[in-house]
Amino acid sequence: MNDWQQKSPLDWETYVNKLVKVVAAEKHEYEGWVLTVDPVSASIVLATFPENEKGSLSFIMGHAVQEVEILQEGDSDMKQRLARICTPEESQAYSPEELEKRKNALKTWLETNHIPVGEQGEQGRTLSVAGVLTIDPPYGPEQCSSTNEIILSRLQDLVRGYLDKQH
């Protein structure tokens, strides 16, 4: 086990959102922004943003890491950019106000059609339909989730139809 693997998750957390240089086995060097460190394998996920490109992720296995050097602290813009990597593109397109409007409009439409719906989760962002299906932001058919495939399929069709009428 190397020094990197022996660190604790709290130690690894200090590297998140920072530009680092990683020296790995066989003298391979990697440079990028630490998105996260896997607490089980100690593997590092680095994000790089080449000019005019979307960005890419690199995974360096924890057992291969020999040295990690912090090159630069991440500012708030970089932290947001890194956070957006893991956010679905659909929800990036909407402001919190727009998401609230979409949620309330869909909830009202479901209630009008006699479908029992409520809100759950932090800040009530998730819609709960009859206690067996949830709809997360941005409230489209892809965000519907249920263990009952029949209910899931039917509600996705309803939401699809509702959204088609809106456009």
TrEMBL record:
GO CC, any one term: Gemini of Cajal bodies
Domain AD residues, every copy: 69-167
The entry's keywords: Cytoplasm, mRNA processing, mRNA splicing, Nucleus, Phosphoprotein
GO biological process: spliceosomal complex assembly; spliceosomal snRNP assembly
Main location: cytoplasm
Record's subcellular location: Cytoplasm; Nucleus, Gem; Nucleus, Nucleoplasm
Highest taxon of the lineage: Eukaryota
Assembly information from the UniProt record: Part of the core SMN complex that contains SMN1, GEMIN2/SIP1, DDX20/GEMIN3, GEMIN4, GEMIN5, GEMIN6, GEMIN7, GEMIN8 and STRAP/UNRIP. Part of the SMN-Sm complex that contains SMN1, GEMIN2/SIP1, DDX20/GEMIN3, GEMIN4, GEMIN5, GEMIN6, GEMIN7, GEMIN8, STRAP/UNRIP and the Sm proteins SNRPB, SNRPD1, SNRPD2, SNRPD3, SNRPE, SNRPF and SNRPG. Interacts with GEMIN7; the interaction is direct. Interacts with GEMIN8; the interaction is direct. Interacts with SNRPB, SNRPD2, SNRPD3 and SNRPE; the interaction is direct.
Protein role: The SMN complex catalyzes the assembly of small nuclear ribonucleoproteins (snRNPs), the building blocks of the spliceosome, and thereby plays an important role in the splicing of cellular pre-mRNAs. Most spliceosomal snRNPs contain a common set of Sm proteins SNRPB, SNRPD1, SNRPD2, SNRPD3, SNRPE, SNRPF and SNRPG that assemble in a heptameric protein ring on the Sm site of the small nuclear RNA to form the core snRNP (Sm core).
Protein name per its UniProtKB record: Gem-associated protein 6
Phylogenetic placement of the source organism: Eukaryota, Metazoa, Chordata, Craniata, Vertebrata
Name of the gene encoding the protein in the UniProt record: Gemin6
